[in-house]
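TEACHING EXERCISE
Course module: macromolecular assemblies
Task: Read the component lines below, then compare them to the predicted structure of the full complex.
Student: A.B.
Group: 4
Components provided:
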Amino acid sequence: VITRESCLERDRVDPLAGLREQFALPDGVIYLDGNSLGALPRSVDARLRDAVTEDWGRDLVLSWNTAGWIEMPQVVGDKIARLVGAGPGELMVTDSTSINLYKVLTAALRLQVGATRRTTVLSERDNFPTDLYIAASVARSHGMDLRLVDGDDVEQSLDESVAAVMLTQVNYRTGRLHDMDAITSAAHRVGALVVWDLAHSAGVVPVDLIAADADFAIGCGYKYLNGGPGAPAFVWVHPRHAAVASQPLSGWMGHDDPFAFMTEYRPAAGTARFQCGTPPILSLVALECGVDTVLAADPVGGMHALRAKSVALTTLLIELVDQLDDEFALTVATPRDPGRRGSQVSILHPSHGYEVKEALIARGVIGDFRQPDIIRFGLPPLYTRFVDVYDAVQHVRGVLELGEWRDERHRVRARVT
Amino acid sequence: VITRESCLERDRVDPLAGLREQFALPDGVIYLDGNSLGALPRSVDARLRDAVTEDWGRDLVLSWNTAGWIEMPQVVGDKIARLVGAGPGELMVTDSTSINLYKVLTAALRLQVGATRRTTVLSERDNFPTDLYIAASVARSHGMDLRLVDGDDVEQSLDESVAAVMLTQVNYRTGRLHDMDAITSAAHRVGALVVWDLAHSAGVVPVDLIAADADFAIGCGYKYLNGGPGAPAFVWVHPRHAAVASQPLSGWMGHDDPFAFMTEYRPAAGTARFQCGTPPILSLVALECGVDTVLAADPVGGMHALRAKSVALTTLLIELVDQLDDEFALTVATPRDPGRRGSQVSILHPSHGYEVKEALIARGVIGDFRQPDIIRFGLPPLYTRFVDVYDAVQHVRGVLELGEWRDERHRVRARVT
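Instructor-supplied answer key:
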């Protein structure tokens, strides 16, 4: 049986335990929603104050050069590149995940122009909805169909009608992890290009885009990269495509010489052409602080050490839920094979998942809920302790034993999480 | 002859003079580049600290509801709407100017589907380049041509081949102000739709989108709205189009019920469908502070009082430049009719505009330079004093008399302004 003391002991010997000090976490809260919004890095407050008072306030427009603002999409992009197996200059921070998906999926379909038998964009039915909305829009505007299949059926659904495959590596509902290498290889065998959304993997699952031979990748900055609410997203393009790919959001920041103010668009070399408008500096400053909290794991083992702790945390949570009384009727929806899941555990409650999640928040345990019946717990290894997992499951037990989920007083309104 | 004392006297009696106190401006600097990056509102520092430490740090993901994050694109949008003659719910803050242009120009061309004789998007040759790059991309993807004409020739170039007209109200180089009412009417008479870019007008020129019967408008947050570097942009859609217009960047924030996580996209009612990804909260907080600095003029006359002061400032600058010695060979490139210019004065130097601009920065007078020969001075009436204009022109005289522009020691590198 797993005791609270054994969890405390695991925290005492955890070589990554000190990384938690990078974050300002409120007392009395167990925060298991880092898969929706990562915690606040302590460095953000001072860095933003400097950016506001010194750079914007004192140096004003000159800061585009003197404070390096104009370089930030590349500088922060190079830092994220180190976390996802990409090289310097290959990855840019810009716009939102949805917009970057629009760019790269359009670029992928344009690369397939001439392959007239390719009439399909293939994705997973349970992909994150915004990805599906964008994929449907891009497919339609190219006269193609968006074909949706179950997550387990992606590889067997590949054939030469597929122009591009668009998948999120870690499923937002279940936490199920796709095999990037296998799917990318299978897609390439039929001549399809592959776009990977790393929203729930960057910063928590080791990703090696070059080793997987992926074509395009996008991802968000506000989950496991701890970049703050609505942080800018990123876009990666394999070097074999970067110099030839074209995308329709051809704004001045993607121009080869934006300050020449030429009438004609001439795309920048490489991934820089996937930028569009003026970069959002204040949000970029916060995102850089967030990415730095992940890079701070390098001296203690980097992404692979984070992954090992993530697996240990999700395994512990599953084991503790398994030990709860059968009458609570909870089901683990996340794959039990640690190699097939991200840093998230999803629990099904048969009828009142939303109310249970609300009652947990009233106890200071912040997870979230996804339609129709999933309670999600994100377990970022940078700041989640083993004892947090233990205590969270005790609160789940308490909410269910005491029927607190039936009581509206225990609920706070928290629709968006 | 205009004396420094007369300018000081104008500042003493200026009913808008107190608005300058809203800004943290550095000592020893005359900042005439608010048309590129507005000055820092004093409120930003504390508001951002709250957003970071209280909302993000303490309340974490719950702040999407408890701090009203999810409503911010509409709340700040409604404030901007008041400055441009739009109603509540008609204008959203989202993405960048370039991306919003892509959305609305695509929406305009989709509204013209079926009008097969309409084969052209019409714009001005000297429009801001990113607008031209996006317009060319959108036109091409609809099988249309982008036709560029001189700014004075827009009205006479209108015919029934034109699907949409895309113009920036105030020219970024010369400060020339288009007649929005006349051009919109003329375009409608031939059945064309009109997209207005308000980048250099929102917050400084009275705009009345509904009175002008415009179709779509976009604009940026970081110039005269004082929203900070790379602040989010805005998009406005006339109510007659909002419920039927469709745009291709169909991300989840434009969905009618984003948190139902439906597989199918169903656009939100109204302009909300022009949102795409998760809104950038930290940047939105700063932008709201900036917009509030403009709304603070309401008790002393609002946009019309700001416009009157803006005209007085630009007129003063032109008069002072006219009084400089002919041997300096400076030319005013901005229209001398105040009704035909924005809040900017552009001066041509025959050979070394860039070096003169750099030498002025070395003296603490920050303007900027635009290829090939234009020195731009932006004069935001919220914080520019008459004596600033006087002193700036004396510095121009000094730089030219002493030949400081020939001396590299007087220059700082400030390519991006």
